[in-house]
Fold this sequence. Notes:
- By secondary structure, the protein is of the alpha/beta class.
- Helix content is 45%, strand content 10%.
- The strands form 4 sheets. The chain has a 6-stranded parallel beta sheet.
- The radius of gyration is 23 Å and the shape is globular.
- Bound molecules: iron/sulfur cluster (SF4) and FE4-S3 cluster.
- FE4-S3 cluster (SF3) binds at residues 72, 240, 263-264, 288, 307-308, 399, 426-427, 451-452, 486-487, 489-490.
Amino acid sequence: MFCYQCQETARGTGCTLRGVCGKTEDVANLQDLLIYALKGIAICNAKAREKGIAEEKTNKFLIDGLFATITNVNFDKNYFIKKIKEALSLRDEIKAKLAKAGVNVENLHDSVSWNPSSEKEFFAKAGQVGVLSTEDEDIRSLRQLITYGVKGMAAYGYHAYVLGYKDEKIFEFMEKALAATVDDSLTADDLVALAMETGKYGVDVMALLDKANTSTYGNPEITKVDIGVRNNPGILISGHDLKDLEELLEQTQGTGVDVYTHGEMLPAHYYPAFKKYPHFAGNYGNAWWQQDKEFESFNGPILMTTNCLIPPKDSYKDRLYTTGVVGFEGVKHIPVGPDGKKDFSEIIEHAKRCQPPVEIEKGEIVGGFAHNQVLSLADKVVDAVKSGAIKRFFVMAGCDGRMKSRQYYTDFAKALPKDTVILTAGCAKYRYNKLNLGDINGIPRVLDAGQCNDSYSLAVIALKLKEVFGLDDVNKLPISYNIAWYEQKAVIVLLALLYLGVKNIHLGPTLPAFLSPNVAKVLVEKFGIGGISNVDDDIKMFMGV
Ligand code: SF4
Ligand code: SF3
């Protein structure tokens, strides 16, 4: 196996024996093969699109498959074996239709023609098509940058899709991008251009998801979220899928079971639609990597709707449930029923047999500062900037992770001058959202817009401020970007920000291993991308002193 798609990759270069995330060699190889098969589908479906014979089910298959390979989503070998078989048969179905429509489907790429006689050939093939099969390190780097960006796009596209929102242009681009990553005729310059185009579609998919979420559940608004516990048994829901949460809240009504959020589900509390449920109790715990302790003390069942899952401990494995594209061998999976809904009754009955959660914290945190809410406070914000009460904003969105070096983000937040405001989104917030950093004229010093996809909101806010201040360049605003990344959704967020023209983004705790020195150099020269050093020097650098 060779995987270097996330920030925690072994030795900062690549996981080769087993993932630091817990992914086994078999699963890593099967994920590579599934991606390869999806590239074959992408090549065929682009042709089917031209002929007007592309089918809807291909879109969903692509986003499901891509999403499943994101870090900490699916660790189940059987899931990937099944998915690869389905991918090959879907590809062949599209090929047959193309042939019927008079399109020549011979002599295309190997991902289109490869035809194993049995499952046994999967592993041998996986060894030939993984990351290292591209020899030139710059081409490899760009191909992976694009592939990871497309994975992130698939995740956000998936969430919009389940709420009934989709955009054919986004699917079309995903196919084009995937096909490009196996096209040997493309140069490094071509791939750099394609990576930027990936950012454009990253903006589009996050805008689409924002529309899906806010049209379905209303605009996030300032909300206090309880971080303590109640006396009833509870269900803990984690991941990013708001539709799953909605169905769970509906089905738990009147059962005496409370629902708590974990990790990236925290921002669900900010949506008006979920406030009507009195049993939607609060948020329990912190970012994903602390789940081994927090799932244990929660006592009740846990529903993982997306990443980040870590291989469960035996102490709570029997209380863990997965749904959607999440999977782990030996963990119960809740499928979509024939009516298009999920039946969570087994989890609810399970909860009734459990003790209430053990309290690990007390108090409240405040969030809900997505674009609509912040823009409704725009006058106040603009006045604070004009009067000098707010000197600078720091976008600290992104991911959290296990590495000790991420303590930097807590220290950085604490050390920031008191006349600065942190704009955040994603699970990175847990490094500083309970620090009581105070407020500036009633504006909290940590403004949480929501999940990682709500980084889009932060871009909307920046663009609006640019307009209000009459600036011709978003980089002239008093906003600095000190972003923490971990998995591939952060890659699409980064590419989206670059597409929007944001410069001088600092990325940590380490730069991606998949950036070759030359590709990193392009990003530094063109966009001023940088890493982090230490809190004191970085604050001086950002504050320009
Ligand atoms: Fe390693 Fe990250 Fe890949 Fe897991 S996802 S195998 S930790 S690089
Ligand atoms: Fe976190 Fe996994 Fe990325 Fe959605 S839950 S931000 S790491």
